[in-house]
Amino acid sequence: MEQENKIMTGRIAAAFVLTVAGAFLPDAWSGEGVALEYRFFHLLPYLAAYLIVAWDILLKAAKNIRKGQVLDENFLMAVATVGAIVLGNYTEGVAVMLFYQIGELFQSYAVGKSRRNISELMDIRPDYANVERDGKLVRVDPDDVAIGTRIIVQPGEKVPIDGRVVEGRSSLDTAALTGESLPREAAPGDEVISGCINQSGVLTIRTTKEFGESTVSRILELVEDASSRKAKSEVFISKFARMYTPVVCGSALALFLLPPVVRMILGLPPLWHMWLYRSLLFLVVSCPCALVLSIPLSFFAGIGGASRQGILIKGSNYMETLAHTAYVVMDKTGTLTQGVFEVSAVHHNKLEEKKVLEMAALAECASSHPISKSLQQAYGKPIDRSRVTDIQEYGGKGVVARVDGHTVAAGNAKLMEMLHIPYVNCHMVGTLVHVAIDGAYHGHILIADRIKDHAVEAVRTLKANGVKKVIMLTGDEKRTAEAVAKELGIDEVHSELLPQGKVEQVEELIRRKEPKEKVAFVGDGINDAPVLSLADVGIAMGALGSDAAIEAADVVLMKSTLLDVAAAIRLSRAALRNIHENLFWAFIYNVIGIPLAAGVFVGLGLTLNPMYGAAAMSLSSFCVVSNALRLNLCRLYSSKHDHKGSPLPEFHLAEQNKEDTGMTKTLYVKGMMCGHCEARVKKALEAVDGVASAVADHNNGTAVVTLTKDVSNETLKAAVEAQDYEVAGVE
Fold it and tell me: Residues 416-434: pLDDT tens digits?
């Protein structure tokens, strides 16, 4: 592309010099009565200049005519300029084509710049993989490397295929994938993705995917397919342009024929020459270059600029949708939180803590959930899978398995309720893994997750950028979810949801919203894939996200930072503003230029020289191109020019929780001796109308209830005493 632009610049310069040279030839060499050879010498520099600058336009017009595609901008310019030269207006004919090619040069430069932003990603494609054979490193095609193969990546080489490090330590440059400048450390046991550049040590990697399914291949497919997904406005302008050109040609023909015919009917001279001149000028001015460029170039520049920052938008249609985002729905684990769970405590355990952790870790050994990994990490020993049989996983609830001949259930409260096992809640905030062995409750494991860096800032930025609500959906328990939502400033939270529950919540939101408002969902897990597909625009946290989530999503955030959600929306809205500005420049040129070219204002003494018309056309294209290129200067992470929406409440509960008033009462209960007693008291209190939740503690002899409405002390007391416990008082 750069080479082509250089050649075009040289052609324009040569044609300009020849045109200027022609202007210095004696006037006596042209006109009627002049010898043919002198007239030829006068024409020669203009003809040479025209052929130098216009041969590709003439060739394209001829090829399109042969294909049956007659009426396009190449045809318009060819007819207009050749007609001007035939009429003897050599300077004007060449100048019009010069200005047109200058406009095309601007366009080519803009497209090339945006394409380079995207094509830079193509540099991540690995050319080979090092495989050790007979003690020697052999370079092979990455497509020929099977899953489980040990490959060697030396310093300076690209990681060709996704895998896990088995030997060596190094720093990986991920800038081409994520836009991050800081390298990532890689050590034995770490997962690495293809496309990264090994900066220091030698790494031995065992591949976990085939090359066609690796990260680098999927990214390249996303980039290659992005241009095929057109926004509605882009499709409209393409259809409009196809109709516009025939209308222009028909109008030019009518402008050439009708006025002279009418003049002849009226007994006036037809003035064929003048009206042919005006019709050719009309063709020049009506060329739809700027109009055709106005929308696709802005989207192209926006997608290119986003890819440079590690934000992959799969098409202009999704960029257009992003710009109208009014609701952002987010998953919690791995999206708002780091998904790095740590065991904080073991409570109400009847066995030693280590034994409870061991049984839970073994039962969860087949699960890929982050909680399972944290249990295995806390256990701290290699998992002996031979000790585990009959594993049954219940989505959104937990796992039941046979461990050393014992039936072990490990999961949340829903699993315990499904198995009809009384359980004990925790007074601390976190994720609980309840453990039951052979149908008997053996305590719970408290697991804490950390909120992601910039999560609070991201939520605040989204609201400042005009997003009406930020909503959190999670399968976690209500109390933990509400604590996280409150800390982040989330507007609405729906907790204790199964995967289908997330789908239902998004479906309900889509039904309730205004037609022009769009819903974006941000997630990273495989269980988020259905919701990502359902939302108006699905956003996947790419670097750490699952393959299913990335495939289902419309936007992939390679840096996996929530700040990129606001950045993507900000860029999309900037692209739409840019398009509106481009359409203004395109239409204002046509509104002024076309009537002038048609001679509407001749009576007022206003006419238009073809050279000035071509210059205005080129200037219009230049304005559109320059404006589109401004998107490359868009500060994605600056909120300075964000749309300020109406003030939003810092925090409120979802619809199903709106009744909660936060009113609490403490009952002093005598007779609770164990976790089983706590569960009985809890169940009895939560069965009372108006009680949202209850937490019983046999150590303190208390039961704390959260109420949705005023409930009398007598009612609460009666519910507990019905279970054969004594209530000493209520506060």
Answer: 999 999 998 877 767 789 9
The 10 Å CB-count burial string (b at 16+, else e) for 16-38 is: bebbeebeebeeeeeeeeeeeee
334: which DSSP letter? I
First vs last C-alpha separation in the chain? 78
- Residue 662: the pLDDT is 46
Per-residue pLDDT tens digits for 243-300: 766 777 778 788 878 888 888 888 888 888 788 777 777 776 776 666 666 777 777 7
- Between the alpha carbon of residue 137 and those of residues 94, 131, 149, 197, 204, the distances in Å are 62, 6, 13, 19, 12
535 φψ region: left (φ > 0), alpha (ψ -120 to 50), beta (else): beta
Q: Mean per-residue pLDDT for 168-181? A: 68
- Mean pLDDT, residues 666-688: 78
Q: Residue 702: what residue type?
A: T
Determine how β-strand 311-313 pairs with β-strand 555-557.
antiparallel
Domains of the chain: 126-221 (2.70.150.10), 342-448 (3.40.1110.10), 659-730 (3.30.70.100)
Any idea which residues carry the catalytic annotation? Answer: 331
**How far apart (Å, rounded) are the C-alpha atoms in residues 185 and 170?**
6
- E strands, 454-598, are 469-473, 492-494, 518-523, 537-541, 555-557
Kindly indicate the confidence band of residue 214, based on its pLDDT and cuts at 50, 70 and 90: low
Q: What is the identity of the amino acid at 662?
A: G
Higher pLDDT, 231 or 170: 170
Element (H, E) at 64: helix 36-66
Residue 338 to residue 594: CA distance in whole angstroms: 59
With contact defined as beta carbons under 8 Å apart, do 589 and 617 qualify? yes
Per-residue b or e along 350-374, where b marks 16 or more CB atoms closer than 10 Å to that residue's CB: eeeeeebbbbbbbbbbebebbbbbb
Strand order in the sheet with 388-394: 342-347, 440-448, 431-437, 406-411, 398-403, 388-394
Cα 590–Cα 593–Cα 597 angle in degrees, nearest 5: 125
DSSP codes joined into one string, 440-455: EEEEEEEEE-PBPTTH
Instruction: Assess contact for 407 and 392: CB atoms under 8 A.
Output: no
Mean pLDDT over each residue of the chain, to the nearest integer: 77
Instruction: Answer whether 0.85 is exceeded by the pTM.
Output: no
pLDDT band at 409 (very low <50, low <70, confident <90, very high): very high
Contact 105, 292 (CB under 8 A): no
The answer to whether the CB of 145 falls within 8 A of the CB of 664 is no
Give the residue from 491, 467, 437 showing the smallest Cα distance to 645. Answer: 467
Tokens of 217: 């291949």
Q: Which helix (H) or strand (E) holds 655?
A: none
Under 8 Å between Cβ of 131 and 211: no
SS3 at position 510: helix
Q: What is the pLDDT of residue 196?
A: 80
Residue 560 phi/psi, 5° resolution? 55, 35
| SS3 state at 4 | helix
Averaging pLDDT over each range in 122-126, 162-166, 641-645, which range is the top one? 162-166
**Residue with token string 């597909």:** 533
> Which is higher by pLDDT, 333 or 527?
333
Rounded CA-CA distance 115/78 in Å is: 29
For residue 542, give the H/E element and its range.
Answer: none
